[in-house]
Design goal:
The complex is a heterodimer.
Chain A: E1 4-15, E2 18-29, E3 33-37, H1 44-51, E4 59-64, E5 67-72, H2 78-81, H3 100-107, E6 108-110, H4 123-130, H5 139-143, H6 148-165, H7 180-193, E7 198-202, H8 210-227, E8 230-234, H9 238-244, E9 247-252, E10 255-260, H10 262-266, H11 269-276
Parallel strand pairs in A: 3-8, 3-9, 6-7, 7-8
Antiparallel strand pairs in A: 1-2, 1-4, 4-5, 9-10
Helix pairs in contact in A: 4-7, 6-7
Chain B: H1 6-28, H2 34-58, H3 66-81, H4 84-90, H5 103-111, H6 115-143, H7 148-166, H8 172-175, E1 181-182, H9 190-208, H10 211-221, H11 223-228, H12 233-259, E2 261-262, H13 269-282, H14 287-304, H15 307-310, E3 312-313, E4 316-317, H16 325-340, H17 351-355
Antiparallel strand pairs in B: 1-2, 3-4
Helix pairs in contact in B: 1-9, 2-9, 2-12, 2-13, 2-14, 3-6, 3-7, 3-12, 5-6, 6-12, 10-12, 13-14
Chain lengths: ~280, ~375
């Protein structure tokens, strides 16, 4: 088996009395495309947010490339209120709670369910700003232009990246003036600009028509090939998911109900009941 | 980049013309002439407005502490520049004060009588800026955790506290209590102000167009996305706050220079609002807008519209042209500007953008200098 990129152990996220993610454990190996699916409100995006540092999980541990990056156990008020499992498992280990930017710096980049591009910036600048993270210059050397070499290198990298994702012809347009499909693609390009090892896509095909979805499917497959990327995605378009995923995790009410290859998932009775359903006219 | 683009050439020519104009003004008019005063004050306001724009317009942090930061810069400059011989007179209630040196005199000791004072004054300005930056760092620790309106209220409160603190009698030997600080030197005429402010604004312009400036704008546009793309929010917000405060401090020092006297009482929150007005009317996110509006605002208020208060305006005499009528007209003008230029006079464009051939549909709100 190949190298383990992301590993979730007993992740539980409890908001007050509501357990949004319940004892979720999953693994993603290098080069895989893994999908996380489930009905609306199942806790997919919450799981995403605990991985990327937006939320601090109530309990559990996230490891990236073999080393723990997020870890917590029920504390304070939550000690009594906690409804999840494995409350003691991580209690003796230090809490790790980095901010999202630190997690991105480790090599994990994400896109958003509702597109979050920088509105007043051009397509080119949107990608260039993502490169800011990789700078070596400080504010003085950047202001007085002692970082020309680095700046030129980053600009060249951005131009090359835009060429690969096919946005070169619109690079001077405002990001928000692009059609929807291209905005999605730009968001992925922006995430790629941080040179991640794991790309996390939160509903990349949301609101897309079938043709755009097909294009996106091909695009994601190409990203994996060209960048040798590991990808975790949340998605509702089953065509896309079944088409490109190597493995699928299904959650319902925060709990993992099935995992495995697309074929296994399609024939799993629990998944069919909870999420996929049966085709009425079949 | 062998050929310089037309729009940058035109911009450079305009800036050069402004500078030459200032030199001509200095040479042809006495230093107390209203035109020179207006240029000097507008320069100071430009610098402070641009520093506020860096924070409010480019980083999206709504801060209202500008008057407080200017106060720090102004006091630093005044205290460090009063000639030793005149200290006894200024600090008459506090036995001549505790600071017994003067930077301009100190530097003229070994740099000569012409260069020395200028170097001393510049050092005092920069010291004021650095002190303000340090103060901003300390205030930023708690305050920058707040967002939008709450940040505005906290910074406003801080500025008011600072003003009261500087009037405190126990600090008298340093700040002269609630009395005036005066008799310190001015650096020069209109041209000197334009040069000095030009240099500071150029630095801000370079910063805004650097990788850090772009990161600031990313934070303004979408904080969540910025953080997800590896931009450390706390670090960058603090940085913007400190840099903005540095220039506000320098601007405060220059305001002290221009006014000739400093008193904590004059750094009221109304001053912050005045500058906020300039920033908003000029266009949030436009440095050129802040500068142009500073000049229009100061020239209008201090000079061109004076007649409205004193009976005769543009040759028309009317009994309603009495004290206070000027401010009523200014309010009307502001409302008109806000109604017709919703994004301010310049929107988010800069001077060179005005000379570019218009590719997209012409936006509303263009007005050349």
């Amino acid at each position: 088996m190949s190298e383990n990129v992301l590993k979730l152990e007993n992740i539980t996220m409890q908001f007050g009395g509501v357990v949004a993610v319940d004892n979720l454990s999953m693994e993603i190996n290098k080069g895989e495309i893994v999908a996380l699916i489930g009905p609306n409100g199942a806790g997919k995006t919450t799981a995403f947010n605990t991985i990327t540092g937006v939320y601090e999980p109530t309990n559990g541990q996230v490891s990236f490339l073999g080393s723990p990056i997020v870890r917590n156990h029920p504390q304070g008020k939550m000690k009594k209120a906690y409804k999840g499992a494995e409350a003691e498992k991580f209690a003796r280990q230090p809490v790790l709670n980095p901010t999202p930017d630190k997690i991105t710096a480790l090599g994990m980049a994400r896109t958003f369910q509702n597109i979050r591009l920088w509105k007043t910036q051009t397509v080119f600048d949107n990608v260039l700003i993502a490169k800011h993270m990789l700078r070596t210059s400080n504010v003085f050397s950047a202001t007085f232009r002692f970082n020309r070499a680095e700046e030129a290198k980053q600009r060249a990298e951005v131009a090359a990246l835009l060429e690969i994702v096919g946005l070169t012809d619109v690079k001077d347009e405002l990001a928000t003036s692009l059609p929807y499909g291209k905005q999605r693609r730009l968001e992925i390009a922006r995430a790629l600009a941080t040179q991640p090892k794991l790309l996390m896509l939160d509903e990349p095909a949301a609101g897309m028509n079938p043709q755009e979805t097909d294009e996106l499917t091909a695009f994601i497959a190409r990203v994996r090939k060209d960048f040798d990327m590991t990808i975790l995605l949340i998605e509702h378009h089953m065509d896309l998911v079944m088409d490109i995923s190597d493995r699928i995790y299904v959650i319902d009410f925060g709990k993992l109900i099935a995992s495995g290859t697309p074929e296994v998932i399609q024939n799993d009775q629990r998944v069919i009941d909870a999420y996929l359903g049966v085709e009425e006219d079949a | 980049m062998k050929t310089i683009k037309r729009e940058y050439l035109l911009t450079a020519l305009i800036l050069l013309a402004v500078l030459v104009g200032a030199f001509v003004l200095d040479a042809s008019l006495p230093s107390y002439h209203i035109a020179i005063k207006v240029v000097k004050k507008a320069c100071v306001y430009s610098l402070v407005a641009v520093s506020m724009n860096l924070l409010n317009g480019f980083t999206g942090l709504f801060s209202l502490g500008q008057a407080g930061f200017m106060l720090l810069g102004a006091y630093s400059y005044a205290i460090l520049c009063i000639p030793v011989a005149k200290r006894a007179g200024v600090y008459q209630y506090f036995d001549g004060g505790i600071v017994q040196f003067s930077l301009p005199e100190f530097f003229s000791g070994f740099l000569g009588g012409t260069v020395g004072p200028v170097v001393g004054m510049l050092c005092a300005l920069l010291f004021g800026g650095l002190l303000t930056a340090l103060c901003a760092y300390l205030i930023g620790l708690p305050v920058l955790r707040l967002k939008s309106d709450y940040l505005a209220i906290a910074t406003l409160g801080f500025a008011e506290i600072l003003r009261a603190f500087f009037q405190w009698n126990a600090l008298g030997p340093l700040t002269n209590g609630s009395n005036l600080l005066k008799n310190y030197p001015d650096i020069g005429g209109a041209a000197a102000y334009i040069l000095l402010v030009g240099v500071f604004i150029a630095v801000i312009l370079l910063l805004v167009n650097s990788t850090y400036g772009r990161a600031f704008m990313a934070i303004r546009d979408d904080e969540v996305a910025a953080e997800a793309m590896g931009i450390n929010l706390a670090h960058h917000k603090r940085m913007a706050f400190i840099i903005s405060s540095f220039f506000a401090g320098v601007g405060g020092g220059m305001l002290a220079m221009y006014m000739g006297t400093v008193q904590a009482l004059s750094f009221k929150s109304a001053m912050t609002y005045e500058i906020l007005l300039v920033v908003v009317m000029g266009g949030i996110g436009s440095i050129t807008g802040s500068i142009i509006t500073s000049f229009l605002y100061i020239a209008g208020l201090e000079w061109l519209l004076r007649g409205l208060d004193s009976g005769t305006f543009l040759g028309i005499s009317s009994p309603i042209f009495k004290n206070g009528f000027r401010m009523a007209i200014v309010s009307v003008i502001i409302m008109v500007v806000v109604l017709f230029f919703r994004k301010g006079i310049m929107g988010d464009r800069e001077l060179p953008d005005l000379f570019r051939p218009r590719k997209k549909a012409a936006k509303k709100g263009g007005e050349a200098k």
